[in-house]
Amino acid sequence: MITGYNTDVECDGIVYHIQTEDKGVEHPLILSLVYLEGAILASKRSPYDDLVIGGFDEQILTQRLQRQHKLICAAVRAGRIDDLKRLSERESPLKTNTEPIPAADESQAPAGDSTPSETAAIAVEQVDREAESSNAGEPLSPGADEEDALQVALLEERELRGGASVTLRVLVSRPGRSPGQSAREPVSRARVTLKTLGTNFRTESTISTTDDDGIALLFALLPKFTTGRAAILIRVEVDGDVAELRRIILPA
Predict the structure, then answer these.
(1) How many C-beta neighbours within 10 Å does residue 74 have?
(2) Has residue 34 got a pLDDT over 90?
(3) 74 and 159 fall within a common domain
(4) pTM attached to this predicted model
(5) Less crowded by CB within 10 Å, the N or C end of the chain?
């Protein structure tokens, strides 16, 4: 799996976040998402079954990943958000093996309810992130090699199940800034938001701030459900940098 890209793009005074990632050869798909304040507005999916069938070439996949990310960023920068939304609606799940994202209509959503875009986040991600546990704490930014790349990690990995009351300890860090320093250092006063997203219940949010050790405590009562999909989304923001982490919630 190739590390993805994250870019903030401003258009008409509004800052959109564009994320592009490779879903891996088991689910050969390049997925780009356009976020506004944590909600997904639009998506672009590009399968690469041809590379898997014809002989996998990571360099070609990297080029496709970069090209798609640049195209989406350029479209957002040019103010073509509505065009991207229509593209999301036209994409067929038969072609992409994922459910399409409906265009978000935030104005029609009651306060506190999950918006169509947030529900779509579950469909896009398929909420089958068990494999993430082996890569816990990896950032969604362009890679840990970047000087200012944030990382967010759960200090204790645990099973999340609907109906449970949980306390999560989150560590936020970035590479050391001193010359020759390779170790990561904690990030204090970072804003940490925990959202519970699901197809069959309302979205709930809780906010915390990291202490001097880069640790934030998050308390949540996970919604009880027996059907559909659900996940938590942990989003960290500090000094204009963003990092995210997702974990599935198992049915009650």
Answers:
(1) 11
(2) yes
(3) no
(4) 0.47
(5) C
